[in-house]
Amino acid sequence: MAKRKVIHEGKAKIIYEGLEPGTLIQYFKDDATAFNAQKKDVIAGKGVLNNRISSHLMTRLEEIGIPTHFIRSLNMREQLVREVEIIPIEVVIRNVAAGSLCKRLGLKEGMILPQPLIEFYYKNDALGDPMIGEHHIITFGWADPLEMEEIITMSYRINDFLNGLFSGIGLKLVDFKLEFGRLWGEYGELYLMLADEISPDNCRLWDVNNNNEKMDKDRFRQDLGGLVEAYQQVAERLGLVPKGGIIQGGSINEQLAAGLEEIENELARERRLRSLNKVKPQKPVKS
Ligand SMILES: Nc1ncnc2c1ncn2[C@@H]1O[C@H](COP(=O)(O)OP(=O)(O)O)[C@@H](O)[C@H]1O
Ligand SMILES: [Mg+2]
Predict the structure, then answer these.
(1) Could you please report the per-residue DSSP string of 124-182?
(2) Between these two residues, 287 and 80, which has the higher pLDDT value?
Protein backbone atom coordinates (compact mmCIF):
# COMPACT_ATOMS: atom_id res chain seq x y z
CA MET A 1 0.00 0.00 0.00
CA ALA A 2 1.34 3.44 -0.90
CA LYS A 3 2.25 5.66 2.03
CA ARG A 4 -0.65 7.94 2.76
CA LYS A 5 -0.86 10.96 4.93
CA VAL A 6 -2.65 10.43 8.24
CA ILE A 7 -4.88 13.40 8.90
CA HIS A 8 -6.18 12.21 12.26
CA GLU A 9 -6.08 9.09 14.36
CA GLY A 10 -9.11 8.72 16.61
CA LYS A 11 -10.30 6.01 18.94
CA ALA A 12 -12.10 3.90 16.35
CA LYS A 13 -10.87 5.15 12.98
CA ILE A 14 -7.86 6.55 11.17
CA ILE A 15 -8.55 9.38 8.75
CA TYR A 16 -6.21 9.49 5.73
CA GLU A 17 -6.06 12.05 3.00
CA GLY A 18 -8.41 11.06 0.19
CA LEU A 19 -7.97 10.07 -3.42
CA GLU A 20 -8.78 13.56 -4.68
CA PRO A 21 -9.03 17.02 -3.08
CA GLY A 22 -12.02 17.41 -0.82
CA THR A 23 -12.14 13.72 0.08
CA LEU A 24 -10.86 11.62 2.98
CA ILE A 25 -10.46 7.92 3.64
CA GLN A 26 -11.97 6.52 6.81
CA TYR A 27 -10.12 3.39 7.98
CA PHE A 28 -12.08 1.40 10.57
CA LYS A 29 -9.86 -0.05 13.30
CA ASP A 30 -10.59 -3.08 15.47
CA ASP A 31 -9.99 -1.02 18.61
CA ALA A 32 -12.83 -0.84 21.09
CA THR A 33 -12.88 1.93 23.69
CA ALA A 34 -15.41 2.99 26.31
CA PHE A 35 -15.74 5.54 29.12
CA ASN A 36 -13.66 8.10 27.23
CA ALA A 37 -10.97 5.52 26.38
CA GLN A 38 -10.37 4.45 29.99
CA LYS A 39 -11.33 0.94 28.89
CA LYS A 40 -9.68 -0.46 25.76
CA ASP A 41 -9.41 -3.68 23.79
CA VAL A 42 -8.87 -4.91 20.25
CA ILE A 43 -11.68 -7.03 18.83
CA ALA A 44 -10.79 -8.80 15.58
CA GLY A 45 -13.19 -7.99 12.77
CA LYS A 46 -15.06 -5.12 14.44
CA GLY A 47 -13.66 -2.59 11.95
CA VAL A 48 -14.72 -4.61 8.94
CA LEU A 49 -18.27 -4.97 10.27
CA ASN A 50 -18.62 -1.29 11.23
CA ASN A 51 -17.29 -0.16 7.85
CA ARG A 52 -19.94 -2.24 6.10
CA ILE A 53 -22.79 -1.36 8.44
CA SER A 54 -22.04 2.37 8.29
CA SER A 55 -21.63 2.39 4.49
CA HIS A 56 -24.96 0.62 4.13
CA LEU A 57 -26.87 2.89 6.52
CA MET A 58 -25.43 6.07 4.97
CA THR A 59 -26.46 4.80 1.53
CA ARG A 60 -30.01 4.06 2.73
CA LEU A 61 -30.22 7.53 4.30
CA GLU A 62 -28.97 9.16 1.12
CA GLU A 63 -31.81 7.40 -0.70
CA ILE A 64 -34.39 9.23 1.40
CA GLY A 65 -32.69 12.59 0.81
CA ILE A 66 -30.42 12.93 3.85
CA PRO A 67 -27.09 14.36 2.65
CA THR A 68 -24.16 12.30 3.97
CA HIS A 69 -20.39 12.40 3.59
CA PHE A 70 -20.28 8.85 2.21
CA ILE A 71 -19.02 8.47 -1.36
CA ARG A 72 -18.16 4.78 -1.75
CA SER A 73 -16.46 1.84 -0.09
CA LEU A 74 -12.85 1.16 -1.05
CA ASN A 75 -12.12 -2.17 0.61
CA MET A 76 -13.18 -4.14 3.67
CA ARG A 77 -11.88 -1.59 6.17
CA GLU A 78 -11.97 1.68 4.24
CA GLN A 79 -14.47 4.07 2.74
CA LEU A 80 -14.11 7.26 0.76
CA VAL A 81 -15.96 10.25 2.23
CA ARG A 82 -16.22 13.96 1.57
CA GLU A 83 -14.00 16.07 3.77
CA VAL A 84 -16.13 18.33 5.94
CA GLU A 85 -15.62 20.79 8.77
CA ILE A 86 -16.95 18.77 11.70
CA ILE A 87 -19.39 20.65 13.92
CA PRO A 88 -18.01 19.90 17.41
CA ILE A 89 -21.29 18.56 18.74
CA GLU A 90 -22.47 15.01 19.29
CA VAL A 91 -26.20 14.74 18.69
CA VAL A 92 -27.83 11.92 20.64
CA ILE A 93 -31.36 10.74 19.90
CA ARG A 94 -33.05 8.48 22.41
CA ASN A 95 -36.20 6.39 22.07
CA VAL A 96 -35.76 4.20 25.15
CA ALA A 97 -34.03 5.07 28.44
CA ALA A 98 -30.52 3.59 28.75
CA GLY A 99 -26.93 4.51 29.60
CA SER A 100 -26.13 7.96 30.94
CA LEU A 101 -29.77 9.13 30.77
CA CYS A 102 -30.73 6.49 33.36
CA LYS A 103 -27.78 7.40 35.55
CA ARG A 104 -28.42 11.13 35.34
CA LEU A 105 -32.17 11.05 35.97
CA GLY A 106 -32.54 7.81 37.92
CA LEU A 107 -34.69 6.16 35.23
CA LYS A 108 -35.17 2.44 34.82
CA GLU A 109 -33.34 1.06 31.78
CA GLY A 110 -35.83 0.10 29.09
CA MET A 111 -38.47 2.74 29.82
CA ILE A 112 -40.04 3.75 26.50
CA LEU A 113 -39.77 7.54 26.20
CA PRO A 114 -43.06 9.30 25.39
CA GLN A 115 -41.34 11.03 22.50
CA PRO A 116 -37.86 10.87 20.97
CA LEU A 117 -35.42 12.90 23.05
CA ILE A 118 -32.62 14.90 21.46
CA GLU A 119 -29.49 15.75 23.47
CA PHE A 120 -26.28 17.58 22.63
CA TYR A 121 -22.75 16.98 23.90
CA TYR A 122 -19.68 19.11 23.28
CA LYS A 123 -17.20 16.95 21.34
CA ASN A 124 -14.13 17.37 23.51
CA ASP A 125 -12.31 14.32 24.88
CA ALA A 126 -10.26 16.35 27.38
CA LEU A 127 -13.50 17.54 28.98
CA GLY A 128 -15.17 14.13 28.69
CA ASP A 129 -17.74 15.26 26.08
CA PRO A 130 -19.93 17.26 28.50
CA MET A 131 -23.66 17.54 27.93
CA ILE A 132 -24.71 20.99 26.73
CA GLY A 133 -27.88 22.78 25.73
CA GLU A 134 -28.72 24.46 22.46
CA HIS A 135 -27.91 27.85 23.99
CA HIS A 136 -24.32 26.81 24.70
CA ILE A 137 -23.96 25.87 21.05
CA ILE A 138 -25.23 29.25 19.88
CA THR A 139 -23.37 31.24 22.53
CA PHE A 140 -19.99 29.71 21.76
CA GLY A 141 -20.54 29.74 18.00
CA TRP A 142 -20.24 25.98 17.50
CA ALA A 143 -23.29 26.19 15.23
CA ASP A 144 -25.81 28.94 14.51
CA PRO A 145 -29.62 28.83 14.92
CA LEU A 146 -30.21 28.08 11.22
CA GLU A 147 -27.78 25.18 11.34
CA MET A 148 -29.31 23.88 14.56
CA GLU A 149 -32.78 23.90 13.02
CA GLU A 150 -31.47 21.86 10.10
CA ILE A 151 -29.50 19.48 12.34
CA ILE A 152 -32.53 18.83 14.56
CA THR A 153 -34.87 18.25 11.59
CA MET A 154 -32.41 15.86 9.96
CA SER A 155 -31.78 14.01 13.24
CA TYR A 156 -35.48 13.29 13.87
CA ARG A 157 -35.89 12.18 10.27
CA ILE A 158 -32.88 9.85 10.57
CA ASN A 159 -34.36 8.48 13.80
CA ASP A 160 -37.74 7.74 12.20
CA PHE A 161 -36.10 6.04 9.25
CA LEU A 162 -33.64 3.96 11.28
CA ASN A 163 -36.36 2.93 13.75
CA GLY A 164 -38.31 1.40 10.88
CA LEU A 165 -35.25 -0.15 9.28
CA PHE A 166 -34.08 -1.84 12.48
CA SER A 167 -37.53 -2.91 13.66
CA GLY A 168 -37.88 -4.70 10.31
CA ILE A 169 -34.96 -6.95 11.32
CA GLY A 170 -36.08 -7.51 14.92
CA LEU A 171 -33.91 -4.85 16.54
CA LYS A 172 -35.03 -1.99 18.77
CA LEU A 173 -33.16 1.27 18.19
CA VAL A 174 -32.73 2.45 21.78
CA ASP A 175 -30.51 5.47 21.07
CA PHE A 176 -27.69 6.62 18.81
CA LYS A 177 -25.14 9.40 18.25
CA LEU A 178 -24.68 11.52 15.13
CA GLU A 179 -22.05 13.99 13.94
CA PHE A 180 -22.63 16.61 11.26
CA GLY A 181 -20.22 18.57 9.10
CA ARG A 182 -20.12 21.65 6.90
CA LEU A 183 -19.02 21.94 3.32
CA TRP A 184 -18.52 25.35 1.73
CA GLY A 185 -19.62 25.84 -1.87
CA GLU A 186 -17.92 27.91 -4.51
CA TYR A 187 -20.13 30.93 -3.79
CA GLY A 188 -19.87 30.78 -0.01
CA GLU A 189 -23.04 28.72 0.27
CA LEU A 190 -23.12 26.18 3.07
CA TYR A 191 -24.03 22.52 2.88
CA LEU A 192 -24.69 20.51 6.02
CA MET A 193 -24.30 16.76 5.95
CA LEU A 194 -24.22 13.71 8.15
CA ALA A 195 -20.60 12.62 8.79
CA ASP A 196 -18.62 10.13 10.88
CA GLU A 197 -20.28 6.70 11.22
CA ILE A 198 -23.49 4.93 12.21
CA SER A 199 -22.70 1.49 13.62
CA PRO A 200 -23.26 -0.63 16.74
CA ASP A 201 -20.35 1.36 18.24
CA ASN A 202 -22.63 4.38 18.54
CA CYS A 203 -26.15 2.93 18.43
CA ARG A 204 -27.85 0.92 21.15
CA LEU A 205 -29.67 -2.00 19.52
CA TRP A 206 -31.71 -4.57 21.44
CA ASP A 207 -32.82 -7.93 20.08
CA VAL A 208 -36.61 -7.67 20.45
CA ASN A 209 -37.35 -11.41 20.17
CA ASN A 210 -34.51 -12.46 22.43
CA ASN A 211 -35.29 -10.79 25.74
CA ASN A 212 -33.88 -7.44 24.57
CA GLU A 213 -30.37 -8.90 24.38
CA LYS A 214 -27.84 -6.09 23.78
CA MET A 215 -26.35 -6.14 20.28
CA ASP A 216 -24.08 -3.08 20.56
CA LYS A 217 -21.05 -1.63 22.36
CA ASP A 218 -22.74 -2.10 25.75
CA ARG A 219 -21.52 -5.73 25.44
CA PHE A 220 -18.01 -4.29 25.79
CA ARG A 221 -18.87 -1.56 28.32
CA GLN A 222 -20.63 -4.07 30.57
CA ASP A 223 -18.25 -7.02 29.99
CA LEU A 224 -21.02 -9.15 28.50
CA GLY A 225 -18.70 -10.73 25.91
CA GLY A 226 -19.67 -11.69 22.37
CA LEU A 227 -19.28 -8.21 20.94
CA VAL A 228 -18.13 -9.15 17.48
CA GLU A 229 -20.74 -11.94 17.25
CA ALA A 230 -23.46 -9.38 18.06
CA TYR A 231 -22.15 -6.88 15.45
CA GLN A 232 -21.97 -9.73 12.96
CA GLN A 233 -25.57 -10.64 13.71
CA VAL A 234 -26.61 -7.04 12.99
CA ALA A 235 -24.65 -7.12 9.70
CA GLU A 236 -26.13 -10.50 8.79
CA ARG A 237 -29.70 -9.34 9.37
CA LEU A 238 -28.99 -6.27 7.21
CA GLY A 239 -27.85 -8.67 4.48
CA LEU A 240 -24.27 -7.36 4.56
CA VAL A 241 -22.42 -10.58 5.35
CA PRO A 242 -23.30 -14.15 4.36
CA LYS A 243 -25.02 -16.48 6.85
CA GLY A 244 -22.44 -17.73 9.33
CA GLY A 245 -20.54 -14.49 8.94
CA ILE A 246 -16.96 -13.52 8.25
CA ILE A 247 -15.68 -13.86 11.81
CA GLN A 248 -15.16 -17.49 12.67
CA GLY A 249 -13.71 -18.81 15.92
CA GLY A 250 -12.61 -15.35 17.07
CA SER A 251 -10.68 -14.39 13.95
CA ILE A 252 -11.65 -12.91 10.65
CA ASN A 253 -11.83 -15.00 7.49
CA GLU A 254 -9.84 -12.53 5.37
CA GLN A 255 -10.64 -14.21 2.10
CA LEU A 256 -14.36 -14.17 2.71
CA ALA A 257 -14.25 -10.56 3.92
CA ALA A 258 -12.19 -9.37 0.95
CA GLY A 259 -14.61 -11.07 -1.43
CA LEU A 260 -17.71 -9.25 -0.17
CA GLU A 261 -19.48 -7.12 -2.71
CA GLU A 262 -18.55 -3.46 -2.43
CA ILE A 263 -21.10 -0.99 -1.17
CA GLU A 264 -21.37 1.79 -3.71
CA ASN A 265 -23.31 4.95 -3.26
CA GLU A 266 -24.00 6.32 -6.68
CA LEU A 267 -26.24 8.96 -5.16
CA ALA A 268 -23.37 10.64 -3.35
CA ARG A 269 -22.09 12.48 -6.41
CA GLU A 270 -25.36 13.90 -7.65
CA ARG A 271 -27.29 14.19 -4.43
CA ARG A 272 -29.35 17.17 -3.48
CA LEU A 273 -27.12 19.09 -1.13
CA ARG A 274 -28.91 21.34 1.32
CA SER A 275 -27.66 24.85 0.85
CA LEU A 276 -28.22 27.19 3.75
CA ASN A 277 -27.03 30.16 1.66
CA LYS A 278 -24.75 32.10 3.87
CA VAL A 279 -21.18 33.22 4.07
CA LYS A 280 -18.48 31.66 6.19
CA PRO A 281 -18.82 32.73 9.85
CA GLN A 282 -16.09 33.97 12.18
CA LYS A 283 -13.91 31.37 13.92
CA PRO A 284 -15.76 29.90 16.94
CA VAL A 285 -14.61 30.71 20.48
CA LYS A 286 -12.04 28.05 21.50
CA SER A 287 -12.16 26.57 24.97
N1 LIG B 1 -16.23 13.57 6.58
C2 LIG B 1 -15.40 13.93 7.56
N3 LIG B 1 -14.56 14.98 7.42
C4 LIG B 1 -13.73 15.34 8.43
N5 LIG B 1 -13.67 14.71 9.61
C6 LIG B 1 -14.49 13.66 9.83
C7 LIG B 1 -15.41 13.22 8.82
N8 LIG B 1 -16.12 12.18 9.33
C9 LIG B 1 -15.67 11.98 10.59
N10 LIG B 1 -14.69 12.85 10.90
C11 LIG B 1 -13.95 12.95 12.17
O12 LIG B 1 -12.92 11.96 12.15
C13 LIG B 1 -12.78 11.33 13.41
C14 LIG B 1 -13.10 9.86 13.28
O15 LIG B 1 -12.32 9.08 14.08
P16 LIG B 1 -12.83 8.44 15.46
O17 LIG B 1 -11.92 7.32 15.72
O18 LIG B 1 -14.30 8.21 15.44
O19 LIG B 1 -12.48 9.68 16.39
P20 LIG B 1 -12.89 9.99 17.90
O21 LIG B 1 -11.86 9.33 18.76
O22 LIG B 1 -12.80 11.49 17.93
O23 LIG B 1 -14.29 9.46 18.09
C24 LIG B 1 -13.74 12.03 14.34
O25 LIG B 1 -13.08 13.04 15.07
C26 LIG B 1 -14.78 12.62 13.39
O27 LIG B 1 -15.38 13.78 13.92
MG1 LIG C 1 -15.72 8.56 16.97
Answers:
(1) -GGGT--EE-HHHHHHTTSS-HHHHHHHHHHHHHHHHHHHHHHHTTTEEEEEEEEEEEE
(2) 80
Fold classified for 6-85+234-270: Phosphorylase Kinase; domain 1 (3.30.200)
> By alpha-carbon position, which residue is closest to atom 19 of ligand 1?
10
Which pLDDT tens digit goes with each residue over 104-140? 999 999 999 999 999 999 999 999 999 999 999 999 9
For residue 266, count other CB atoms closer than 10 A to its CB: 11
Q: What is the value of pTM for the model shown?
A: 0.93
| Residue 172, strand partner residues | 206
**Has domain 88-207 been given CATH number 3.90.930.1?**
no
CA-CA-CA-CA torsion sign (178, 72, 258, 233): positive
On the 0-12 / 13-18 / 19+ scale of CB atoms within 10 A, 42 is exposed
Which residue of 69, 86, 192 sits with most ligand 1 atoms within 8 Å of its CB, as the best mutation to test the pocket? 86
- The ligand 1 atom at the shortest distance from the C-alpha of residue 84 is 3
